[in-house]
Structures are given as C-alpha cells and as structure tokens.
Queue: 2 jobs
Job 1
Amino acid sequence: MKYVQQKNSYSIMSKSKYVITRPYENKGRWNQIFGNNNPIHLELGMGRGEMIIKLAQQNPKINFIGLELDDGQISFAAKRLIGKDIPNLRFISGNALALEKMFGREIDLIYLTFSEPWPKKHDEDKRFTHISYLKIYDKVFKKKKHIILKTDNKGLFAYSLESLSQYWYTFKKVSMDLHHDERNIPNIMTEFESNYAKTTNKPIYYLDAEFEG
Ligand SMILES: C[S@@+](CC[C@H](N)C(=O)[O-])C[C@H]1O[C@@H](n2cnc3c(N)ncnc32)[C@H](O)[C@@H]1O
C-alpha cells in the first residue's frame, strides 16, 4: 500500500510545475528559476503548503519556496494547485539538513511554522532553532538573517527565544498570543491553527528575529 502511495506521490510531483525534485541542480540560480531577482522566502517543513500558497498569492513580488520531507504532503499541495498559475511559488522535496546543497546565499527570510517541537532533551538538535540549524541557515541567507517562527508549543518557543538570542539575533516582534495581539501582526492562519485556537483557547506564540552582520 505504501509503495502505491509513494508511486502516486511521485507521479503527481513529477508532473507538477511547482515541484522541484532535484533542488541541488538549482543552487545559485534560483533567480533564473523564477525569472527575476525578487527576494526569496523559504518555509521549512511546509506540510501541505497552506500558508506558503496564500503568501505567494498575496505577495507576487516575493518568491516563495516550501521545503518538505514528506512527499505525500507535497503531492497533496501540488494536486490542489492543478490548473492554477502562481509563478512565484515552488516546492522542494528535501531535508532541511541539506539546505546548503540547495541554496547559495539566496534566501531573505525563513519561516518556521508549527515545526515539530522535539521536546525530549536527546532530540534537541532536531529543533529547527538549534544552533546546528542556525549555522546551516547562515550559509543560505543573503547578508541579513531573518526568521519568523510561529508555534503552539510554549517549550519550543522559549527554547527558540533563548537559542536565537544567544546567536545574536534581535527581536523585531515577539507575541505571546498572536491571535489576540493588539498590534494586528499580519498572519495567515492554517486549518490546524484555526481549529487549535477554537478548540483549546490556548495562545499561538510568534517571533520575528533578525541579525544584520
Ligand atoms: C507539524 S508539521 C507543520 C506543517 C506546516 N508548517 C503547517 O503549519 O501546517 C511539520 C512538517 O515539517 C516537516 N519536516 C520535519 N522535519 C523536516 C526536515 N528536516 N526537512 C524538511 N521538512 C521537515 C514534516 O514532514 C511536517 O510536514
């Protein structure tokens, strides 16, 4: 059954104009893929791509790339886009650990949305804000580093605040309750996020951090 699903995902992905299955070949030439020099925003672990698809539709002067390990999720996103034309959007099937094989210094902003929290201490290095990941991001950011993170997980949020500040990032915005924040921070809600907010009454945490060296 798994084999049939994988075969099906591969077939959808290989026919989709949005999916890049061999991203290493595009390192240093993403501006050619998009046909312009607009900024590139990357989401790590885009899932079914709900947020990145809407961001791309709302911001045609920014290029968006969603990276995802799970081909089932990518093919779900690609299927939803059949017949649609969003030239500033691409998906990559791949692992965030290999970012520097996919990109030169080409990225303006990294989104980390509802990433796995990996709460156990021995899994700490799998968190997307662990110092080993921050060092990988250094290799793909243009001069300025910029990360936006959104999570329902207080532990991951606290960890990320500490990890980013120890790595000299400063915070443009921090919210302990994004949905009720009086500053009206722009937000695209995913289905998980709106269900979570409705059913739990717990906050969504948000941070916008940057470092200009
Ligand atoms: C909890 S989901 C969140 C999906 C999406 N960002 C959202 O808000 O709906 C986390 C996603 O990250 C992906 N992921 C986890 N580790 C990854 C890695 N190292 N590289 C790429 N994707 C990864 C998982 O496959 C999963 O789809």
Job 2
Amino acid sequence: MKLFLAPGACSLGIHVLLEEIGKPYETTLVNLREGAQYKPDFTAINPKSKVPTLERDDGSVLTEFPAIAYWLAGTNPEAKLLPADLDGQAHVLEAMDYVVGTLHAQGFGRLFRPSGFAPSAADEDAVKTRGKEILEKGFALIDAKLAGKDYIAGAFSVADAALFYVETWAGRFGLTLPPNCAAHLDRMKARPAVARALQQEGLA
Ligand SMILES: N[C@@H](CCC(=O)N[C@@H](CS)C(=O)NCC(=O)O)C(=O)O
C-alpha cells in the first residue's frame, strides 16, 4: 500500500492507523503548499486533489478519511480498530463522521481557508469567528463523550485517529482543548504507533 500524505495534515490520522496495523506500506509526500495536489501526476491518482489518498496493493485507490479508515479496519480485524458489534461500530462511525465532516470541514475549514467561505475579503473575520464557534461546540460535545473513558468507544478505534488529527490543529489557532480532549491528545501521543507517525512526518 502507498499513502499519499502531507506532514501534519488530516492524512496523519491514516498514517497512525497504518502504524497501528503494522503491515508494510510506503508513503509519498504531496507538497500542498506548492500545489502538488493540483498537478497531473497527483490528479491522475486522486482528481479531488486531497490527502489522504491510499493506493492499495491491487493498484486501486481509496479516498476520504472515513472510507479509508473503515476499509483498513475491516481488512485488518486483528488490529481491532472497530468494536466487534454493529451498534458499537455505528457509534464509532458517527463520531468519526462528526470529526471529519463538522470539526474539520466546517470548523477548521473556515480557519484554514476563510476565502472559500466568504463572499468578499471583508467577510473573512466573520467566517473565522464562525469557524471557532463550530469548533468550540464540537470539541465540547466530544469532550462530554470522552468523560470517564480513555478513547471515544472505550477501547481505541478509528474515531480516535480522526479526533487526534483535529486535536493537533487546535493550538495553531489559539484554541484551548477542553480537558478530556487535551488528555486524549496526550494519551494518543503516548501510543508507540502515534509517536512513530509523528516522527516520520518530522513533527516529533
Ligand atoms: N473529505 C476529505 C478531506 C481531505 C482534506 O481536506 N485534505 C486536505 C488536507 S487536511 C487537503 O488535501 N487539502 C488540499 C487542498 O484542498 O488543496 C477526507 O475526508 O479525506
């Protein structure tokens, strides 16, 4: 398998899952700052111009964080990246989708690229303020879910890899994580697989 990633981007969560699984894989850097995601070499692989992108051993490509995470969990059951029961799995997917679709896309999306949400430059501050509101609400909801637990589903799952990457972004925008999320971030960093992924991305 080959993971197309950018250091510190949302692809970090998939990188963590590959390290948790422990099977051989390669990584290819996509330089988002230089616009490599829009060049033909990469758009031939993922025309959406996004990381994470996973090229599998048969050459087929999978995109979108939740789909990649779900496929990795299902093809590597021994790694126990999803609960065994359907209801537990549904709750993990619910949390992962909230992180990726709301915290990342709606909240951090407004902070990373306010121009994409603003009709004119004059609206950009209002867009960023709205992004922060979405994040405060989102992290508070997840914080409540984490109460009394080490991980979102009790045991580690794909949802924690998603939560981890957005938690690493909070400090960049001066956001303070609520206590259970801050403890979750520390717990994640203490996992050997996470430490390896951070180190390989030059973030440790
Ligand atoms: N919905 C996608 C979002 C992926 C995404 O937003 N990736 C960002 C990095 S965190 C990216 O590749 N951005 C490059 C660009 O938009 O130019 C997923 O779940 O994988």
